[in-house]
Amino acid sequence: MSKRGSVLSKFQSFDAYAKTLDDFRVKTYYGAALTIISAILICLLLWSEFSDYRTPEIKPQLVVDKSRKQRLEININITFPHVPCYLLSVDVMDIAGETQNDLAHDIYKTRLDPDGNQIHVEKAQDHTKEIHKILNDTTQGIDEPFCGSCYGGEAPESGCCNTCDEVSEAYIKKGWSFNDPDSINQCVKEGWKEKVLVQSKEGCNVAGSVRVNKVAGNFHLAPGKSFQQNNIHVHDLQPFLSDSVNHDFTHEIHHLSFGPKVQGVVNPLDGIGRTVSQGHYMFQYFVKVVSTQFHFLNQTTIYTNQYSVTQYERDLTGKDTSGHVHSHQGGLPGVFFNYDISPMLIINREERKSFTHFLTGVCAIIGGIFTVAGILDGFIYNAEKTFKKKKFI
Ligand SMILES: *[C@@H]1O[C@H](CO)[C@@H](O)[C@H](O)[C@H]1NC(C)=O
User: Which InterPro entries match (predicted)?
Assistant: First the structure.
């Protein structure tokens, strides 16, 4: 034998997989069955391991939110079946002192007939423009500009109150309640009373989005025009309470979210509805907003928010058990959303699983199944041998 041959044979002694001679191998039918079963099992497990490897996982991470000067976008879609749109005002207030009264931008009020069908879409407060148009039509032909009286209310910059709406605004600015439109010329001319009568049985859908400061605040949907009086936020409740039709703040929240929509984020108020049969009722939702970022594998990042909510409601008429109304407790009827910003930020990062991990899994499956099958096979072989021996004795 050459020197090379002896080196090779020395190397061979490292073989951990020493083979038995083929002549000593016995092939059995159960061995074959075990082999097939193992093969099928391996295929199944490999498939599940592969699909697990292909699906990215989302890893959440909790950090302190260090962003500054951000705005918060509130998306809302809520229906009031028993409050007509002209009575409803949407206001936002925050602890930074910013108020947005009777929001007109990007919030749409849709009139609903008593059966809940849409009447027509109008941008909040757009009806003032409509009225201006009507008025311009009626004043056509008159050369000198018309200047209506404000009936003692706080006149707008132009000094004139040409529409019923402007008179009502002037009244409200002055802190007066606008409760007798019949005595006001502009309102009679516009058929205000008839309009109100037609609309008073209607409902209202409020939908759209508001951008607010990212500090704790409150937005509410309450009856009557709102205004600031001595730095206090006041609503003119008179039209709501004195109406011959009973209004109430039964509502259904179709959607309430903060920031862009992301699949998998559940908004706990979506589809929530509350029913009440009397007007003097206050619904409050205390919302905790948690900033959430999503970093996806395709390099897109979405900044949004999740929230949790607690619900509270209060009967504002102090009714005793006999049903008599005692007195009006403090508080405004309506639906209030008090939001608060959490200092924590959740970062959800989408990640692909590591390939080496997948490889390890594959080896574990193949090796494991073969080993277990081998043990089983040996067990059956030995059992059969003892059984046969016993039979012969
Ligand atoms: C508000 O929700 C209702 C009911 O789900 C839906 O029909 C309507 O289109 C929504 N409005 C907006 C502006 O998304």
Answer: Erv, Erv_C, Erv_N
